[in-house]
Amino acid sequence: MLELRDLVLKSGADPISHTFAGGRITVVLGRNHSGKTLLCRVLAGLAEPAAGGMFLEGRSLAGVGPGPRPVALVYQAFVNYPDWTVFQNIASPMVAAGETKAAIDVRVRDIASRLGLTALLDRYPAALSGGQQQRLAIGRALAKSARLLVMDEPLVNLDFKLRESLQLELAQLLHDLDLAVVYTSSDPRDAFAVGDDLVLMADHGVLQSGEPLEVYAAPVSPAAADLMCDPRANRLPDGAGLIRPEHLSLARGAEDDRLFDIEVIGCETNGSETFLHCRPDGLSEDDHWVARLEGLVRLAPGDRQTLFAPADNVLRFVNPDGNLSEAYDARG
Predict the structure, then answer these.
(1) Do the first three CATH levels of 2-217 and 223-329 match, i.e. the same topology?
(2) Distances (CA, A) of 301 to 49, 278, 305
């Protein structure tokens, strides 16, 4: 278990108090420059926070450098040593720590077995697939005997198909390790595919936390709702609410559905779904919506249509001045 107590990542940011449970994967979701990577560096001892404390399994990490700190960090780029075999890569932290050859051999083979790398111990990283290289980077991190595994957007450099195939495999692997895992991402799909728990970050602070489905269903602010959308949430013409792209449809689903008359701007499709770019009546000329529709939809720019949305899926966030633009645009 990792506990953050009034941790301030940089001067001027809001303090963070949060507990990352052992045996669970916590996805830290935020856009670029929200503070995700700085949080990873602070947890790993590579950067100092402006204030506050960190306690891993009840012990303070204050003054503990990155070497002896029981925290393993896996970067976006897997950073495997290209001239060393899989065995040598996994063994490298233990060699640096001065452990005996016998102890290293036992530990490396145990880690390789858990990660499905036993048959690859004599290979070099260039001969491994993307998924195998990722597991190797995790294996080297585990060789530190870490109690906290920090992963800084570990799938961001993989192509879409490989990323998709690795998500479930990675989630199962991380659960089997029984560590506290902090997994940062800018993709809300990772929250559902990998995360047991979710922390939304912006401006080096926490917007909201909880289980992914709970955060999705009940965002506490427009910025929190927007973070859970890809494409981003659509602002209602009245300026006092949001509707997510996946909640818009060309067909009425219930009598109390909200109706939006729109003008088509363009369509993108991948065959299984269509992203309809449009502008509802009453929306400013410099803004537009995206509706995420099932199947292949053919509409031409300039066409007029009506979109429907369940009334329960229209999110309302009214500031004292009746406008949510400031909160909506605070994207971290």
Answers:
(1) no
(2) 51, 9, 11
User: Domain limits of the chain?
Assistant: 2-217, 223-329
Q: How many CA atoms lie within 13 A of 30 on its CB side?
A: 27
Per-residue pLDDT in tens (0 to 9) along the chain, 332 residues: 999 999 999 999 999 999 999 989 999 999 999 999 999 999 999 999 999 999 999 999 999 998 888 898 888 766 788 999 999 999 998 998 889 999 999 999 988 988 889 999 999 999 998 778 888 988 888 887 788 999 998 877 666 666 776 777 777 777 877 789 999 999 998 999 889 999 999 999 999 999 999 999 999 999 999 999 989 999 998 888 899 999 999 999 999 999 999 999 999 988 889 999 999 999 988 899 999 999 999 999 999 999 999 999 999 886 544 445 444 443 33
CATH architecture for segment(s) 2-217: 3-Layer(aba) Sandwich (3.40)
151 forms beta bridges with: 74, 183
Go through the chain and tell me how many residues it has. 332
CATH number of the domain at 223-329, please? 2.40.50.140
